[in-house]
Amino acid sequence: MQNTIPSKQVLLKTFLTGLRRRNITNKGMTLLERKRAIKLSADLAMASVRKEAKWSNALMADLSRKFQRKTVLPSKHRHVVIKGNKVSTHKRGARRRCAAKATAIAKCIIRKREQVLRRLVPGGKCMDECTLLDETLDYLQLLKAQVDVMRLLVKALE
Amino acid sequence: MWKWSSDGMYSSSSANHIFCSSEFRFHPSVPSSHAHSQQKHNHKHKHKQVTVRTHSFLSSPLLSSPMEDEIQPLLNPTTASASPSVATSGASFTALLGLPPNRAVELLHEPTFPSDPALVDRAARFSVFAAAAAASSAPSPEVSPPPPPPETAKKRKDGGSSNGKAKVKKGKHAEEDTDGENKLPYVHVRARRGQATDSHSLAERARREKINARMKLLQELVPGCSKISGTALVLDEIINHVQYLQRQVEYLSMRLAAVNPRIDFSGLDTFLSATTMECGRLTIGNAKVGTELDQQQQQPVWSEVGVSDSDQMNSTINSKRPQIQLQQNQLQQFWHVDFLNTQNHLQPSVWERDTVMGSTAPHVQREEQHSLVGPGAVPLLAFDRVNPVAPPIQSNQQLKMEL
């Protein structure tokens, strides 16, 4: 409740500062390197706006680890696909044998979804359910703001 | 007075929702006057017993077994462990009745994490987490359902009796759970009618309600989720949305990277950051410029072009943009169009733009290296107060078009 809705100006400013630091306009960088640098700046800007968030700290730790290694690993987030449906149907079949209760099935599905969400939100592995939802809320807000900022920038530059 | 409505929700005359706590600690500061006030509300002997209990409870924090006997006929006799809670609940209920203003302090202390206050307020209207957001907005420690405290849930298991009075009574007893506490990070859960009231189920219920509240908040945040009912589907949508946003960030960063070689991004950065840093008036001190330049290898040259803007700008920012070959007149025309098209807050600076363009047109034409950011910076920087982000971006948009 104490966290304000992220100001896009602040985000933009941080974003651009980070971009400058990374010296993107150096001709030596390939497209992918530039993209990674941009994404890194974006993530850092996001995380820095909300310093007290758990996901923010997790994200920064993650990024600093990557950054120090001088390689940007492909984020695991990208590979997450919602397989919940498939898995849950299978589980549902199994569950049906043991307990025909709808609530049990629903709980199973929800648990699957929750696992996926944990993988998506940075630092989600170490949170309980309530915190996970909290962090998702916050993360969503910042992601939205970041996307808007980047869209503005792209629109300005094109 | 409060009334127990049929749907289980109760409202009290004094505004906010009060939620009784399933677990609580007896606050020694609860004055005995609460017990007296309780007496007024108690018409039946049973309530008097409650009062008695509160009295006794006030005297001794721990409920003795005689209380238990009183409670048993009233409530569903379940576990002995629940009995201490009843007494304390009685005390808290009297406190609740006696001090409506204190109700705010009894409210659920939520972890202050849901960041959007609007959303939190909406959540507060929804469920257990009432105006704690409004009342106590101090960041409180993470609320955790406390370990089953010794004085926990009251026995309230009643199955069937739908007697109104009995309902009211039971509701009252449910209310007795309310804590007179402030500042204790306890989860206050209302034990509704027909629900188990032992500590574990209460804690679970508290947890569930917390989660449901947050789910509602998330539903509001994610577009298109409000019509969906059911946690699984809502979670599905949330996951989809998060993935979508993350993919957007990737895609946009790729686009920015593709855009990049064509424009002097460093110059753009410094320009934009300078505009955001300067509130309204842009006077780029060399010191400041120097600090910004330090971080870059390609140092944009901050030179003070003598744009004699009569009013706002003493200097403009010119960054060396080798890639940008600008034709000043055309750009100015672009900016005319651009500024006219943009929002009304640009209007005040129209005159500025005119003066700037008039003054800089002959001057700037000579220098290829000068970006049109210079003259454009002046009106842009005027917008700094209003919207530093959009106008510079618009101008740069026009810049880009010139390339």
Which short descriptors sum up this protein?
heterodimer; A: 158 residues; mainly alpha; B: 403 residues; two-stranded antiparallel sheet; 16 helices; elongated
Précis, in short:
The complex is a heterodimer of chains A (158) and B (403). With 158 residues, chain A is an all-alpha fold.
Topology:
The complex is a heterodimer of chains A (158) and B (403).
Chain A: H1 8-22, H2 31-49, H3 54-68, H4 84-98, H5 102-120, H6 129-157
Chain B: E1 2-4, E2 10-12, H1 32-41, H2 45-59, H3 65-74, H4 83-98, H5 103-106, H6 117-126, H7 132-135, H8 164-175, H9 199-221, H10 231-259, H11 265-277, H12 286-293, H13 328-341, H14 350-365, H15 373-382, H16 390-402
Antiparallel strand pairs in B: 1-2
The count of DSSP E runs of length 2 or more, i.e. the number of strands of chain B, is 2
Reading the helices and strands of chain A in chain order gives: HHHHHH
Order of helices and strands of chain B: EEHHHHHHHHHHHHHHHH
Total strand segments of chain A: 0
Strand residues, percent of chain A:
under 5%
Shape of chain A: elongated
Low-confidence stretches of chain B: 1-66, 74-115, 127-181, 278-393
As residue ranges, the low-confidence spans of chain A are 71-90
Q: Outline of chain B, from the CA principal axes?
A: elongated
Rg measurement of chain A, Å = 19 Å
Report the end-to-end length of chain B measured between terminal Cα atoms.
73 Å
- Overall pLDDT confidence of chain B: 52
Head-to-tail CA distance between termini of chain A: 37 Å
Subcellular location (chain B): Nucleus
Keywords (chain B): DNA-binding, Nucleus, Transcription, Transcription regulation
Region (Disordered) (chain B): 30-51, 134-186
Biased composition (Pro residues) (chain B): 142-151
